[in-house]
Amino acid sequence: MSPDLAARLEALGQQIGATWMVGFENFDGGHPFIEVSEGPTYRLVAYERGQRLFAKETRELDEILYWALYEVTWTMAYGWAVRHPVEGEEQRFTAFRRQEELLGTLDPRWASRARASRPS
Predict the structure, then answer these.
(1) How far apart are CA 31 and CA 39, in angstroms?
(2) At a CB cut-off of 8 Å and minimum separation 6, what does 30 contact?
(3) Which end of the chain is more exposed for a tag (fewer CB within 10 A), N or C?
(4) Residue 57: helix, strand or coil by DSSP?
(5) What pLDDT digit, counting tens, does each position of 74-92 carry?
(6) Spatial separation of the C-alpha atoms in residues 84 and 24, rounded to whole Å
(7) CA-angle at 81, arms to 77 and 86, nearest 5°
């Protein structure tokens, strides 16, 4: 675990009122977690029933922060969309907008980046 990375994640999570944060332990069940190795090299990884679902690797601190907060804000945004349905709109689009708001609170570039990757 990286104490500096953990502190940054915690501070960003508090800034948006996150009730959970991507951590540094594998809890399986598809929950993403971060591995840090020499360099440092950061990996966002998730396993389900012992099978790796995905793994992304970077040497950039900002990139691992974005990936982790993207996961956290998606969970928050989808929960919010379920509780605040918009008539005539698919929940995922309500969630996309909410996620962009949350990410924009942390870094406007992150909101733009998420928006650019959305289906229209």
Answers:
(1) 25
(2) 46, 47, 48, 53
(3) C
(4) strand
(5) 999 999 999 999 999 999 9
(6) 32
(7) 140
CA triplet 27, 32, 37: central angle to 5 degrees?
95
Q: How many C-beta neighbours within 10 Å does residue 106 have?
A: 19
Q: In what order do the strands lie in the sheet with 51-58?
A: 33-37, 41-48, 51-58
Amino acid at 95: A
Per-residue pLDDT reduced to its tens digit, 11-59? 999 999 999 999 999 998 999 999 999 999 999 999 999 999 999 999 9
User: CA-CA distances (angstroms) from residue 17 to 12, 73, 77, 116?
Assistant: 9, 10, 12, 24
Distance (Å, whole) CA 110 – CA 46: 22
Per DSSP, which regions of the chain are E strands? 33-37, 41-48, 51-58
